[in-house]
Amino acid sequence: MSSGSHQYLQNTSQKPCVRTGDIEHLSQLSENLAALCLTQEHSDVTLVVEGQKLNAHKVILAARSDYFRALLYGGMKESTQNEILLPDAPLKAFKVLLKYIYTGHMFLTTLEEDVILDTLGLAHQYGFQDLETAISDILRQLLALNNVCAILDAAHLYGLDNLVKVCHNFLDMHASEILTQEYFIQLSQASLVELLQRDSFFAPEVEIFRGVCNWCKANEDKDDLVMKCVRLPLMSVADLLSVVRPADLVKPDALLDAIAERTNIRLSSLPHRGQLVYENVACPRLGSKVVSGELMEYLLDSDHYSYDMERGYTRHAINGPGDHGIIVKLGQPSIINHIRMLLWDRDLRSYSYYIEVSMEQKDWVRVIDYSQYSCRSWQNLYFENRVVQYIRIVGTHNTVNKVFHLVSLEAMFKLKLPKMVNDIICPDYNVATLDKNAVVIEGVSRSRNTLLNGDTKRYDWDSGYTCHQLGSGAILIQLGQPYIISSLRLLLWDCDDRSYSYYIESSINIWEWEMVVDNTRESCKSWQVIRFSPRPVVFIRIVGTHNTANEVFHCVHFECPSMEDVEPATTPKQKRLKETCVQEAGAQAPETATEAEEMPTDDVENVLQ
Hints:
It is a single chain. This protein is of the alpha+beta class. The chain has four domains: 8-142, Potassium Channel Kv1.1, Chain A (2-Layer Sandwich); 170-273, Serine Threonine Protein Phosphatase 5, Tetratricopeptide repeat; 284-417, Sandwich (Jelly Rolls), CATH 2.60.120.260; 439-595, Jelly Rolls. The chain is 26% helix and 28% strand. A hairpin with a 2-residue loop joins strand 11 (420-421) and strand 12. It is flat, with a radius of gyration of 35 Å. The N and C termini lie far apart (91 Å).
């Protein structure tokens, strides 16, 4: 056939195809199969559902479902029968499913909710996994107070874990409302027990008790499993005596135990409930406010940039053990495990602090204690899940004056937490970076943080490194907050064949130092990977003791923990650069640390008052 003929065929095509040469008439196929649904034409099997006989075609049923394939062609007695009874199938839902089997289409929006749930059950029973998933996704969008309980029971019955989670989250957000709905008493015992066991099913416990009482009147609470989920110690003694006792659903001993626990045990030890939202709960939009501290209007305004020596922060005086600190009250008791806050960082000052949380400002629990560590700028803090109403931040030290300055605070719940040792992060990523608020506070370079900018290629005789004069000073790095560190890596300047000797120390407070590695008797070149016993680290001091070329120690790059276990291969570009440096070495003047431009310092003449 000529190319012109091909062109003619393409131009006279009636409907667009997926691609040139493809013909797709799926809609016609669906229409033709739909015409066979529930008709006697070519029917070879009759399905009996709720006494009604439905004509069907074995080969279509078997092609669409492993269940029907096994039933009709698997050697069972049904494979020889022309009439098959399906005793557990609801008729309306089965007709909907049968139409889906023949057409691949299902219009759920035209169906009643009970039919949708019955169809979900049939999809599960007959192995239509894609349909089961699709119905589940649609049910998520249709969740409402009048159907969530039925959907939750169905999701439990069919093992739809994702749908169960969505229902739980919906019920968490509407706990007080659902407790008063008539649909609440329709929940199965298993579904209700699992719901009440959630810390995030948050409502006043007396309301939960009343809802459970209504459920118990309409259902059998076998073994008191539902009533045992009510957290009686969270109720006031007055409610225990005036509400719980007259209901006569709690045994006297259990009631006395609840009163004793309420009065004798620390409030922080009680099994509190709280809202669970995956966003910052320390914000005015959710009802949070600062209730203690000076300049309270700034802390929760979400402004992380417009602050200076005069404004943009909340503060408290550092006086001693009796300090009340800065206190934030959350709008609702909330489940949190992460606090993110910004310490004032317009200069190189450091702060020490601790953080406590409480439900009623009577019993405080310390979740973060960095009172022995020097911290700066952004703090990312993690702890065990806790229900919290109040957050107290108490500064214990400022390297410049006696005032603790806090620019911003956020509190939230995180699904994934980093590896922790006590309240200190054990990172598997480099924390000696500008993004993690590390800073070089001693050393000479063209730019203060050259050592931490991650550039391990663009360095030469004049720039790209940090240095210090041998026998005088050091290279000193401060991390933003304490981390548990067990390795580090540094790149010694290696544009020629020189070698260095050095030692490295670590500290948490800049005055007490611990040796990391002593390479003062070693000849070291280029990349250095150092491993040591895990320890909390804030400061790292690198002290050069020897250079075979001159009296200056040069370091190009630093990271901790080490991101590589072995020395990376030299790239051709690096090799050419090194060769060029070696060729020019004879023309270089004797080098001293004073030849490099000294690191600029912040122009801060006054301190915060």
